[in-house]
Amino acid sequence: MSELTPPKSPSMLDASIPVITMIGLLTLAVFYFGDNSSYGPNQIALLIAMGVAVVIGIKNGHTWAAIEQAIIKGVSLSLGAVLILLAVGALIGTWLLSGTVPTMIYYGLQILDPSWFYAAACIICGIVSMSIGSSWTTAATIGVALIGIAQGLGLSPEITAGAVISGAYFGDKISPLSETTNLAPAIAGSELFAHIRYMFWTTIPSIGTAIVLFLILGLTETSSANNDSIELLSKQLAQQFDISFFNLIPLIVLLTLAIKKMPAFPAVSIGALIGGLWAILFQQELIMRLAANGSDELAANIVVVWSTLFDGVSIETGNDELNKLLSGGGMSSMLNTVWLIMCALSFGAVLEHLGMLKKFVEAILSAAKSTGSLIASTVATCIGTNLITADQYMAIVMPGRMYKEEYKRRGLDPLVLSRTLEDSATITSPLIPWNTCAVYMSGVLLVNPLDYLFYCFFNWLNPILAVIYGFIGFNIKKLAVKTAS
């Protein structure tokens, strides 16, 4: 074939083969590796599917050199998010060490009352998840405790699981520490804190309605049991940390920087460093316990805080579930997520370069004439990707890549796409029984997804509200029109 001959456009069969390969391999990954499928198996599946796409591309006249450049360009889009994710890992570690996260958990636990237990469970999980940026860790710690308390109070574990998941995913969704909250704007091309502020328009009405529904459900039930489990957890937190309102200052600083619109990477990095300083000022006893035997005070402070920044913190309390809550963080904790993002973006970049994504988009968009139908198509595609690939990261990356240019062509701000990705991809993942998120939630909360999904009010309301906004044109941000000077 002559070098001047342009490559052939892919047929629908050409475009479908890599996707079918990916779906098949990801399904096998979930089947054989379960919850651990995102820790290597999914990455291999994506790379093999990418290899299949490359072979088809070369068959159609593309060169490896051009495909390689497309991969490099695609991966480069994630570099800003990678820096933020590494800073977030450091921040989680130092906020655990400084007592910032434990203090938020401690005071959050104090608001529990049996008469409005479900609403309180939702709020507490929202606070904890927002503070640590992880719905999974929240569910495995506070969520497990709340399920146990519900059983002791004679309340519904299914409704409690719905409240835990609703709160956990709300907090995860608006936390700058969350992996998915960083990933969505990175894919869509929006800025992290602007993305979070824009999500308030859908998340606040959704979580507000969910809390009201949980409050109504809670007020219809009575209980005579006590809150011994919460008191024990609070006592264990106080034994490990110097609990004080002063520990919340790193959070206040980060929120202030966000309000002042400082870019995410320096803001989160500053928050992480302040967390390390706060640990030195307020958690000396803990630092000395974590330090190597025989370390002097100066060496202990330097080594423990430095190690926390890159490798997180591990705290032993005698309570396995509390250990999970109080341990983690560090830049190294984000490396697997970075790996998955790079593999997913590489696969998406190849499909985009070879014209395969365009082939799918043309078929889908042929029926999406209005802004409302475009947003509805995006929501449906994200949910469909969650159904097929069983991975929330894939449900963000693939539709984001597919629809990015169409949103821009129609004059829609990238914030509209990033918000829609989160309104659908992130929060519907625990509702699909075979999705890794649902498998995880069911495993730690010991409630079948088919039983709790009806009570995940926030997770249902949010995508519905996103579609309604699209069709009525409410709060749909347009690209700024550049005028000639």
TrEMBL record:
Q: Transmembrane helix: is it a keyword of this entry?
A: yes
Q: Which domain of life is it from?
A: Bacteria
Query: What sections of the protein cross the membrane?
Result: 12-33, 39-58, 70-96, 116-137, 144-170, 198-220, 241-259, 265-282, 333-351, 452-472
Q: How does it sit in the membrane?
A: Multi-pass membrane protein
Q: Where in the cell is it found?
A: Cell membrane
Q: Which residues form the Na+/H+ antiporter NhaC-like C-terminal domain?
A: 167-474
Return any one Pfam family short name.
Answer: Na_H_antiporter
Write out the entry's keywords from A to Z: Antiport, Cell membrane, Membrane, Transmembrane, Transmembrane helix, Transport
Q: Which PANTHER family match?
A: MALATE-2H(+)/NA(+)-LACTATE ANTIPORTER, MALATE-2H(+)_NA(+)-LACTATE ANTIPORTER
Q: Which family does it belong to?
A: Belongs to the NhaC Na(+)/H(+) (TC 2.A.35) antiporter family.
Name listed for the protein in its UniProt record: Na+/H+ antiporter NhaC family protein
Q: What is the organism of origin for this protein?
A: Colwellia asteriadis
Lineage at the top is:
Bacteria, Pseudomonadati, Pseudomonadota, Gammaproteobacteria, Alteromonadales
